[in-house]
Amino acid sequence: MSFFSEKYDTTWPDIYINLLKRGIPIHEYGINNWLLSREDALFVANECKNNGIAIAGGDVYELLDHEPEPAHDNWYCEVNTNESFNNYISRSIAKTIEYISTYRHPRGFEPYFIFVPVFELK
């Protein structure tokens, strides 16, 4: 069992999946997620906030020959002790938006982002 499944509810509701469909599905590569361009990632992050979804962190990818490759960059936002879920949503989304807005790939590739969503605290 992973850290995230122990601490967070990791069942993805349809509303979240529908937001991700703006991106590129990468299931065929063994990753149950979608790559989001910077513009789409910022849109999805704002919609997550509007729909009560926190983002525990995420990974950065690049496309090489049309295949996703990890860029070995990421961010995370842990829940503070006694923090309300609503506060965590606001704080995690703010951190996500800041990271995505300012991220520059070290080799100049266009970055793509994947999220680790949190729908409720266990």
How is this structure best summarized?
The chain has 122 residues and is an alpha+beta fold. It is built from four helices and five strands. The protein has helices spanning 3-7, 14-20, 38-50, 85-102, and strands spanning 24-25, 34-35, 54-64, 67-76, 112-118.
CATH top level is Alpha Beta
Beta-strand portion reads 25-35%
Order of helices and strands: HHEEHEEHE
Biggest β-sheet strands, sense, barrel:
3 strands, antiparallel
Structural class, by secondary structure, is: alpha+beta
Stretches where pLDDT is under 50 for at least 5 consecutive residues are 1-9
Rg (C-alpha, Å): 14 Å
Helix fraction bin: 25-40%
Question: Can you count the helices?
Answer: 4
Strand order of the largest sheet: 4-3-5
How many structural domains? 1
Cα end-to-end separation: 14 Å
Global mean pLDDT: 89
Number of strands: 5
Give the CA-based shape. globular
CATH topology: Ribulose 1,5 Bisphosphate Carboxylase/Oxygenase
CATH architecture: 2-Layer Sandwich
